[in-house]
């Protein structure tokens, strides 16, 4: 009551100027948006706010009436656009509700038009608007338009279908768990009933952290191998380490001291090692195929009978003895094969074998990535098969000369600038085939120079004969790819139950979100695939395919993006996103890249990427984690780009495309606040019934804990870049979200049952195994972060097990 009377005019004046300023900014942006063909709401709301500010400055009660009208109109417009979707509703009304509450407070309200009654109809209507906004917000928290609430029935989960041979619960002998790439563990001690009792058992630090000169795309994506009582991992700088699987204690390490003298590395990672046991092939082939491999003998067999294959970032392949980590001298030259041979003088730092090779009875088969958008003249994407014992080159599949599979003569070079395979392949030794997911010929967004052979193998799943390397069949997933829609995921082998018995299938996940389910003997679709018309027209000299193949089983966005899907933390950055949306070329999926700038959705990260999917072969369930993030692709004429293009080390920003008339700028579609311009959710967990090929359940996954201000853990559904795992007990595990957690899910419904914090980003695939010594089941994952994904870097391999498991 003793407040200085001079404070009141100042408070009202500042309020008036604030409201008027907000209105003016909104009106200016809204006018531009309307001129672009967008919503008129922002222009009208801005003009209304501007007038409210003027009326407040003049001390007229009409200001409250008008603001109440603006608020009520905003609430109605919000429901019209997004119904009661909380994450889309909140940014549309939050600022206006806060401002309305400020105007309703007595020390503001009573001093607008002093001398007039302040508890009037305008205050009542404004109060009703605020209560209505609060009620809408509360109701929206009970709604989830993005959840598919299905479930697998109890008989399905309880009954294990007959399988030829159950693999050992104590082993994880290949990147995908077994040679079939299922990411499935036979371990069953950890269940939905006791998973809440998981506790950290140990944590191992590799000591390999980012250093000077490392690229932005440095990552810890390794999936460990488990053989006997050993774990085997590799680090971003290609260091191989063996650990005790029960304690995490280091047993040996091998540092190849990679060549760091390349001009640049676009990537720096090692996704895993490959394992070969000569003794395993003495028994039936089926045992090897299903992963039932002998454990390490207490009496060590002759050196290198059991060996690991380590790919390095400087393009070499080492064979190491599993017992001491020393190179196997008979393999190549002193235990190493130089993968740069035949690729030209510029291979170092450009050709990168970042994924583990495929190992069969006689062969180790290896591919590698080629720097994206570096130059039209780059090393070729050859796939080579070496003798698993001697390292002698047995055959090579050169996408530029696919029929010339005999070893390349000394001194010759593979065809330059051909599609490459940077991810993990899968082999079926019973059929005598290895399945290679192919990538693109660089550059990705300009395809004028591509040959007929390049078009044939770009973004194709290629089945090669194990004996000769010749093509047995191929299945193209994209025609004339201009969107970086290379095949990123390891294909999974599964025998799908059908009316006439099991069908040998292969499942290929894609960046677009299609799940191609093919007969792995012939490449013929099991799930129908149709050709769909797509947008046309690109830069002069290039072309777009009239149609693109689409699988009937797909996680591609069900609808294209609309202006109403634009998002932001406030109405203002949301408005800017709407303006950006209208300024870009966008005609739905497969909108070609353009000089104008094209919105690419799904974007470069893809719906599915290298993490692939997990499959329970007994229950016939597929478990995945689809992402939804848009990117902007803009072609820039070389003479206009100048020297802006970076030399490398990143797949974002202006890419050089040396030798092409266009460079390309690649960026995620973000608001000025650094938030995605498209509304959440951006990440899910989901499951498919492989008997019916129906999606059964889908849930938002992950929180804003490690990406929002103040670490607020809102369940928004965040992007994931880490692989899924299924266990025999009907649990799923996943660690790759933007927040730093390992989570466990009930595979019946997708319900999150447990989570625990990670010391860094978990952009890797967890494994699970049962200890041969103690009988305990462990879940293990690398928490080392991902440079370009933006998660915290680290060097921790972490294991969990049940506390007091002996009482189970």
How would you explain this protein's 3D organization?
The chain has 808 residues and is of the alpha+beta class. Helix content is 18%, strand content 24%. A hairpin with a 4-residue loop joins β28 and β29 (621-624). It is globular and about 100 Å long. The model is unreliable at 161-165 and 284-298 (pLDDT under 50).
Label the overall shape.
globular
Figure out the total of helices: 11
SS elements, strand count: 41
**Percent in helix:** 10-25%
Low-confidence parts = 161-165, 284-298
Q: Largest beta sheet: what is the strand line-up? A: 1-34-33-29-28
Query: C-alpha Rg, in Å?
Result: 29 Å
| Average pLDDT for all residues | 91
């Amino acid at each position: 009551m003793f407040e200085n009377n001079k404070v009141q005019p100042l408070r009202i004046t500042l309020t008036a100027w604030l409201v008027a300023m907000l209105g003016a900014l909104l009106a200016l942006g809204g006018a531009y948006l309307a001129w672009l063909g967008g919503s008129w709401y922002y222009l009208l709301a801005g003009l209304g706010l501007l007038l409210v500010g003027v009326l407040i400055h003049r001390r007229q009660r009409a200001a409250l009436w008008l603001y109440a009208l603006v608020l009520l109109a905003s609430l109605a417009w919000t429901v019209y656009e997004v119904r009661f979707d909380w994450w889309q509703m909140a940014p549309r009304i939050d600022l206006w509700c806060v401002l309305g509450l400020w105007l309703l407070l007595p020390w503001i309200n009573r001093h607008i038009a002093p001398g007039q009654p302040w508890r009037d109809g305008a205050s009542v209507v404004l109060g009703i608007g605020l209560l209505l906004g609060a009620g809408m917000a509360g109701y929206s928290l009970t709604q989830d338009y993005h959840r598919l609430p299905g479930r697998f029935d109890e008989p399905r989960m309880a009954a294990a279908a007959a399988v030829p041979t159950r693999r050992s619960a104590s082993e994880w002998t290949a990147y995908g768990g077994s040679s079939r790439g299922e990411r499935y563990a036979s371990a069953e001690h950890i269940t939905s009933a006791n998973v809440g009792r998981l506790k950290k058992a140990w944590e191992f630090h590799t000591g390999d952290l980012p250093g000077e000169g490392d690229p932005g795309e440095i990552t810890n994506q390794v999936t460990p191998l488990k053989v006997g009582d050993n774990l085997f991992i590799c680090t971003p700088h290609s260091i191989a380490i063996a650990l005790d699987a029960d304690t995490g204690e280091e047993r040996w390490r091998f540092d190849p001291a990679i060549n760091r003298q390349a001009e640049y590395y676009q990537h720096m990672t090692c996704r895993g090692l490959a394992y070969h046991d000569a003794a395993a092939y003495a028994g039936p082939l089926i045992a090897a195929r299903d992963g039932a491999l002998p454990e390490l003998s207490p009496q060590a067999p002759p050196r290198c009978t059991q060996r690991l294959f380590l790919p390095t970032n400087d393009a070499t392949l080492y064979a190491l003895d599993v017992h001491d980590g020393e190179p196997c001298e008979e393999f190549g030259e002193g235990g190493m094969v130089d993968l740069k041979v035949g690729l030209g003088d510029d291979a170092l730092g450009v050709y990168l074998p970042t994924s583990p090779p495929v190992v069969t009875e006689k062969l180790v088969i290896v591919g590698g990535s080629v720097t994206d958008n570096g130059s039209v003249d780059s090393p070729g994407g050859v796939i080579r098969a070496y003798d698993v014992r001697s390292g002698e080159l047995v055959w090579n599949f050169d996408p530029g000369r696919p029929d010339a599979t005999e070893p390349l003569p000394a001194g010759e070079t593979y065809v330059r600038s051909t599609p490459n395979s940077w991810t993990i392949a899968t082999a079926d030794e019973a059929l005598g085939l290895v399945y290679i997911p192919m990538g693109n010929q660089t550059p990705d967004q300009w395809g004028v120079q591509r040959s007929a052979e390049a078009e044939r193998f770009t973004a194709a799943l290629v089945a090669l004969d194990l004996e000769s390397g010749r093509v047995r069949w191929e299945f193209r997933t994209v025609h004339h790819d201009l969107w970086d829609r290379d095949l990123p995921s390891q294909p999974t082998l599964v025998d799908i139950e059908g009316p006439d018995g099991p069908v040998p299938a292969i499942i290929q996940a894609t960046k677009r979100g299609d799940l191609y389910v093919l007969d792995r003997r012939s490449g013929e679709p099991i799930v129908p695939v149709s050709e769909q018309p797509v947008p046309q027209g690109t830069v002069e000299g290039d072309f777009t395919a009239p149609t693109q193949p689409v699988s009937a089983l797909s996680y591609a966005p069900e609808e294209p993006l609309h202006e109403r899907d634009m998002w932001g933390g406030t109405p203002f950055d949301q408005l800017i996103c709407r303006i950006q949306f209208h300024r870009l070329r966008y005609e739905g999926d497969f909108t070609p890249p353009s000089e104008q700038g094209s919105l690419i959705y799904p974007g470069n990260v893809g719906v599915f990427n290298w993490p692939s999917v997990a499959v329970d072969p007994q229950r016939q369930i597929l478990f995945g984690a689809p992402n939804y993030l848009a990117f902007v692709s803009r072609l820039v004429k070389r003479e206009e780009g100048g020297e802006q293009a970076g030399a490398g080390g990143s797949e974002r920003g202006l890419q050089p495309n040396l030798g092409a008339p266009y460079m390309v700028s690649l960026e995620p579609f973000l608001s000025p606040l650094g938030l995605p311009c498209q509304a959440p959710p951006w990440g899910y967990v989901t499951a498919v019934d492989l008997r019916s090929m129906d999606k059964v359940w889908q849930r938002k996954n992950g929180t804003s804990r490690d990406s929002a201000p103040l670490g607020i853990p809102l369940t928004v559904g965040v992007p994931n870049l880490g692989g899924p795992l299924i266990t025999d007990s009907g649990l799923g595990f996943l660690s790759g979200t933007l927040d730093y957690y390992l989570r466990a899910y009930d595979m019946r419904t997708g319900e999150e049952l447990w989570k625990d914090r990670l010391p860094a980003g978990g952009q890797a695939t967890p494994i699970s195994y049962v200890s041969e010594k103690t009988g305990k089941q462990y879940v293990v994952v690398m928490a080392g972060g991902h440079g370009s994904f933006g998660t915290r870097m680290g060097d921790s391999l972490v294991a969990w097990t049940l506390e007091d498991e002996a009482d189970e």
